[in-house]
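Supplementary Note 2. Why include the ligand at all?

Several targets in our set were suspected to adopt different conformations when bound, so apo predictions alone were not considered sufficient. For every target with a known small-molecule partner we therefore ran a joint prediction. The input for flavin mononucleotide is given below.
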Amino acid sequence: MPSNLNIDESGSQFKALNSERPLQLLADWVQEAKDLGMAEPDAMNLATVDAKGNPHNRMVLMRHINEREIGFFTNLESRKAADIFATQRTSSTLWWPQLGRQVRIEGTATEMPRDMVEAYYQSRPRKSQIAAWASKQSTELASMNRLHQDFRQYEEKFSDKTVPTPTFWGGFTILVDKIEYWYSKPFRLHERIVLTKGEQNWSITRIYP
Ligand SMILES: Cc1cc2nc3c(=O)[nH]c(=O)nc-3n(C[C@H](O)[C@H](O)[C@H](O)COP(=O)(O)O)c2cc1C
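The joint prediction is reproduced in token form.
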């Protein structure tokens, strides 16, 4: 821990922060939100950038986290997937209003290994699995009727069978290179800590709110 940062000062929310495990506090905060029964505790905004430099963002569920990366699942032919295949850079925000906490994450995304995708897909409810087959995500849909027809068609096709994972469905892992923890405090004197990946180690900095 660098000596210029007093992480232990009285009242700090970040005493548990460890620059050798920069994502641990994120995992802890998600778990705390889950334990409190909060709605969508792992929902995160995901911003991507297309080949022309235009940003696009939307919500996804952060369904993977380890010591260096986070991840989510999606359609590999969607807008977000096209952006990631083109530029790889992502920026994400998670927010838990009841806890007054925000986390911002920047990193580089790559397609998730198929064994992780298979394991997650096969753990999903059957109707969600079938819905994935029926959705050509982010392309034009003539009517909701058409979507329901397609859903029923796949229900019949896979009746009494394990629903296979579509080849067009998968996930992305994001190798994190910057993470900011934000903690709400009275009078907008919020507490912010940024961890940035360096050549060897992560640096850790306190910044003004
Ligand atoms: C709370 C919430 C969670 C969502 N989670 C996912 C997700 O995990 N994966 C996904 O593909 N879409 C998810 N969506 C839908 C996306 O926000 C988006 O509409 C869709 O993925 C298409 O995005 P794109 O056109 O930018 O690719 C979620 C939406 C909400 C509101």
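The mean pLDDT is 94. Residues 40, 43, 56, 58-61, 72-75, 78-80, 137-138 surround flavin mononucleotide (CB under 6 Å). Comparable summaries for the other entries are listed in the accompanying table.
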